[in-house]
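The aim of this short unit is practical: by the end, you should be able to scan a pair of folded records and say something sensible about each. We start with the first protein, listed as its amino acid sequence and then its structure tokens.
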Amino acid sequence: MNMLKNIPAVRNMEKKEYQSVMKGLENKIGELQRKAVDSKLPVIIIFEGWGAAGKGTLINKLMMSFDPRGYNVYPIKDPNEEEQMHPFLWRFWTKTPERGRTAIFDRSWYRRLSVERLDGTTAKKDWKRAYHEIRTFEKQLVDDGCLIVKFFLHISKKEQKKRFRKLLANPATEWRVTKDDLRHHRKYDEHFKVFGEMLEGTDTDYAPWTLVDSKDHKAAALRIFTEITGRLEEKLSTPAIEGSARRVSAKSAPAAKSIIGESDLSLSMGRVEYLENLKKYQGRIRELEHEVYKKRIPVLILYEGWDAAGKGGNIRRLAQSLDPRGYEVIPVAAPTDVEKRHHYLWRFWNRIPKAGHIAIFDRTWYGRVLVERVEGFCSSMEWNRAYDEINETEKQFSDYGAVIVKFWLNIDKDEQFRRFNERRKNIWKQWKITEEDWRNREKWDLYLRAVDEMLLKTSTLHSPWTVVESNCKLYARIKTLKTVIESMERAL
């Protein structure tokens, strides 16, 4: 059943009573915002609804109750050229609030399921897939502690026509009614059906919709303020729990067998063969860089591996012949203070390449299930949940058309020890070895278990792992070059 047919009736209220109640709600919202800041609670408030339903007026009223230093308002329109060259949710991930701040969206990612669908600017397969992407996006944010409050402002066809006429009659406001608004009004019944499907398909227990009868602005404001204060009070009074139990239990079973333990580390290559292959493959990858640029195919090349496994030298040979305007190498270190105030995937969404470009990640979001897991930088529930979050995210990149190539550079413990000592003795390489590297080495078995579980749970059809036997650096460099080339050629 269409949810828009069951919007709760509002009670008419005398002016003095309304002013008294609203004043109390405004003060309460300001107080709760300050508590949210102190509690480092990120909040997202979404306003969707009919044209002329009063979104701007009600958002402005809400803003007057907030401390202006604690929120951002994002009016969402058609995606610009830069936004179109990234996955659908990129422009929204980059706007998610840090802990303690509030983001208010005047329209949102729901455009894909409503306006873009109805106007035919998004293919059917894309807007149908967006249902799952949106639910996943909101679930990931909520699991990380975010409060999401979603409003749909409803008015009848008759009321919308009345408001459009009033706006058009005034030279100061006629600009607010566009040709698209009038065209959408003529198709009100079609929009009514689509909005109903959108609401029903995205109304979840973790991010429910609140339907607002917006015929009377005062009643609508009371409904919105009451809902926000109630949701904030509930969230702030609920003790923080360790993530969500939705996905994987906190205890992780060991892998049945060691995946990387089965790799043949005796594989090697002579220098003459290496130089011949290097020249051939570097030439080919430069050709492919231009082909993926022309066809607007984004490429993500992800490097993970043991300390001293040769990631830096490998990346240098990969990038050596590329046009620097078409690629970027992204070294990933410990998150900054700003990055820690967001969902852990936020900093990676910010670095996703646009269509036709190549991003080479020296360490990645897999730190969540490796170093953060082993060193205790996140809870067991958080890193267990991350397997599905990562798979879902990479699926979105793949569905957008991205090529994803993932490498685990594998060496044995003896080879690592030899390379550590070589770095310690070589004055030009001493900067590469730290006390932390030696400490991590002592946890080899813990990391081995984490790596095996990562490979087992996140190697998918759309983004499989390639284990690179790296005891011989020359062999490893050629294998990665060849694998990237094959992946790009398949995409082309």
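Turning to the second protein, read its sequence before its tokens, just as you did above.
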Amino acid sequence: MKRLEGCGTALLTPFKKDGSVDYDAFSASVDRQVEAGIHFLVPLGTTGETPCLTAEERIEVLRVAREHAKGLPVVVGGGTNSLEETRKSMALLEPYGADYFLIVVPYYNKPTQKGLYEYYKAVAASTSKPIIIYNVPGRTGANITAETTLALARDVDNIVAVKEASGNYAQISRFIRDAPEGFSVLSGNDEETLSLMATGARGVISVASNIVPDKMVALVEALQKDDMKAARRLHYQLMPLFKNCFVESNPIPAKAAMSLLGLMENVLRLPLVAASDATVQLMRETLADF
């Protein structure tokens, strides 16, 4: 399989006013991503409110994403904090078009590094699909270290990438420097795309690209070409959006922005609620800059 790189969008899951999944809006959202030149798609991640979707809804979201992907790689969120539940999740989704599985560091359990190593090794042995480690300690309460990630990259053939959202630049730099050939480090934070790709990361899994896919594609492609002048210009243009997408918990501000663009309803599932009036106004002002 081709190395995973470029800009991938952590897709929002649209809901109708009655709370049901709006598959028409989701289809249109995927089409918009493809038309903008996005490099891969990431349904059923944190941004997609996946913990609040039923098994049937997760299958249908993936099926629609695959149908509209026009051949682009589809990276599917499948991780939980239980090995058996993660295996069940992958087995449920694999027949419907998953090219890669994005597996979050197990949350709440607070595993040791040895536990994380053994967990990912067992997950990878459960599927023939390539696995992407997702390190986001701000949400999970656990950080997978450079040593553990590099050991997994060396020892397990189908662990092929890490989505790094720790914000620990020294740690991520070590991944980039020491990763085996073909292993991809992907930024998990939009605002770190420039700094990480400038030092060797292969791309980003982006929230902001839901809103401005063309701009994020342009930023990543400028970095791939070492066109730092263009990349810096785009980075600074996008920085307010990067920041404002996280003034409330993701995906609350991003969904408000997509609603302002007329692309989906501003509806989330509990325990998340729609953005405050102040955040909606902030996103309105941010969008006006584009």
